[in-house]
Every structure is written in C-alpha cells, then in structure tokens.
Amino acid sequence: MSILAFQMPDKVVMEKANDFHGVFEFKPLEKGYGVTIGNALRRILLSSLEGYAITSVKFSGVLHEFSSIEGVMEDVTDIILNLKQVRFKAAAEVLDNKINVKVKNQKVLTAGDIQKFTPYFTILNPELELLHIDESKELDIELIVEKGRGYVPADEPRNTELPFGHIAIDSIYTPVKNVKYSVENFRVEQRTDYEKLIIEVMTDGSIHPEDALKGAAYILIQHFMLFSDQTMTFETVKPEEENVVDEEFLHMRKLLKTPLQDLDLSVRAYNCLKSADVRSLGDLVKLEISDMMKFRNFGKKSLTELEQLVADKNLHFGMDVTKYRLEEE
Q1: What is the SS3 assignment for 290?
Q2: In contact, 252 and 280? CB cutoff 8 Å
Q3: Is the domain of 42 the same as that of 182?
Q4: 292 and 306 Cβ atoms separated by less than 8 Å
Q5: 223 and 196 in one domain?
Q6: pLDDT tens-digit profile of 155-184?
Q7: Which domain holds residue 33?
Q8: How far apart are CA 115 and CA 127, in angstroms?
Q9: pTM for this structure?
Q10: Residue 8's Cα: distance from chain center in Å?
Q11: How many domains does the chain have?
Q12: Of 30, 80, 79, 25, which Cα lies nearest the Cα of 55?
C-alpha cells in the first residue's frame, strides 16, 4: 500500500546539553505529530529507562522500619526516605552490589560518605544528608544496590530474595528527573501549518540526556515493530478465555468492595480505619503502610493484624485498584 510522503525532520537538533540537562528540537513535523511524539517520548523517558537504586537496607540492632536508633536524630523511616534519594552511577563492571557503611566519629552521614565503602558506584548527589548521629555512637549500615527500571514499591515482589534482617525500600531506578515538551508552529516555504517539537530532558547525571532520548526512542521503535507488515499476527481469543478473565475480574471487584464491618477486625483497628474514612477492603489495600502509621491511635499491633488479613486474601498494600471500577454500582 502506497503512503503519501510525510514532512519529517532529517535530523534532531541538540540546542544545549550537559550531563544533567538537554534541549532537543524536531522540525518540521506534520500537524498533530508534535504532541503525538512528544507525549510518547516523555512517558517512556520517565518510566522505562534503567538505573541503579538502593533496594534494601539493614541497620545494626534494628528489626523493622518503625524503630528508632539510639543516638540518631532521625527515625528509621526518615532515614529510608533519604536513602531513596541517593543517586548512583555504576562502573563498567559491578562485582559486588552490597555496600557496608561504618559510621564512626562523625555527626552527619552524607551520601558522599557511602563512596568510601564501594569502588563500583559513584554517588551523584554526595551532599545529600542521610542522618545526624551522636559523635560518640557507632552504626553499621548494609545497603543493597540493584539495577532496575522505573519505580518499584517496597512491597512489590523482587527478583532476588530479601537478605535476612534487611528492610525493603521503594526503589526509584529511573535516571530521568523531569521531561518537558512544547509544540510550536513552524514554517516550511509558504506553508505555516507545520510543527516544531521541543523536548527538554533533565537527568540525575548517570546518563547523558542525549543517550536517554535515544534509549526512549529505541524502546518505542521496538514496540511499534510488532505492528509492521513483516511481524504482525493476529490471534483470536477463545470464548472460554474471555470468560475466565471476566470471572476473575468480577471476583476481585466483589472482594475489594467488601465493607469494612465485614472484615472481622479488632475494635481498635476498625475504629482507626473508620476515622480515616476507609470504608472497604479496596480503600484499605490502596494505602501504603507509611500512610496508615500516621492514623490516630494506629500502632504496630493493628498493622500486623491488617498485614495478615490482606495476605490471607492474596492482596497487598499499595495496590492500584482503579481498573476494577469500584465506584460503580
């Protein structure tokens, strides 16, 4: 099938670029293609590029994330929030992804201090303060740094088993901090209805913006190749397979709509959730553990009870339940 020729850029113009920031221009584009291409690239850049992040941490003498450490100003939850922000650039070959940090004779531990304990990673934001500690105290911290893509919550299943004593943390792998795009009118000879796409990419320094843009484009190309004439195949879903999907959907929807009063909760847990406007099982599993710990009169005992309840139903906290359309009757 013949296709009329499209007005397309013959190159990408890099207006400005350094290790952290790049501005790129695509011109000319047919009307409407600026938003189409810009939005697709932005979503891939923010969600699908690989990077390194801390996936778990172990503190000497600490059993869980809701503890406090003697001599340390911050709670464990606050320290974990700081660790999530540490940005890494890996060496060409990483032989050991475990970092043992010794804190001794210092008042402040920064991300840059981690650098002394690993030859395989470069810390890109060394000035980040992780914790404040009494100078007379000592603390051992064990970090696991892994390669991944996008954002992975702490309660999501991992490829590797969590080491004994470690606390899983939310992992922000993506090396891209922000992406902006804009579309402007562009003139080609006498026609003024073409477009110019401007994409601005900001990274953490572990990847050059140009390489990030190339990587995102490659991912899109690989997916669109599925629709090319050479590889496109269509498979018909058998009716019984559709029924299985429908039955699973309806079962899950019914389960998530279970009212709070039907969950056989203790009085304390029930009252805490009710006062926080949690009305159903679906409302409960949408929450993160850190959110629940902020509820009034909510403690470790109630958390343990709810964790067991959710696990027994093969669910987990932090679930995305939007696809089950719970607001519909």
Answers
A1: helix
A2: no
A3: yes
A4: yes
A5: yes
A6: 887 777 888 889 999 999 999 999 999 999
A7: 12-49+176-227
A8: 12
A9: 0.64
A10: 34
A11: 3
A12: 80
